[in-house]
Amino acid sequence: MVAVTMLTVVLLTTTAFGKGGKSSPPKIPKPTLIEDIDAAAHTIKIVYGEKRVLSTYTITTFTSVNINDKPGKVEDLKKGMKVSISGKDGGSASRIDAWEVAGSAADAKKK
Question: Does domain 33-101 have CATH number 2.40.50?
């Protein structure tokens, strides 16, 4: 009985406090940003992640655009804006939500 109790205490201690090593903080993903916007060609290119993966979407007349949580136009989208896109990479975007990032190229053009 004493052996079972000791084993339980060891297991609970190991589970509660880890193996004694330091845990690393969770990685925070880099934001998804507009890399290029071409209103004439109806395309938007975005980059995301540590490796800066590039994705391209087609903008159609049915694509909903919101900027800073308000309805916007494709012409108002600028390089460097943080973005969330609904749609399939290489296909058409059904919705684009964009936000201006302080210190971005889009923010600098406003001044």
Answer: yes
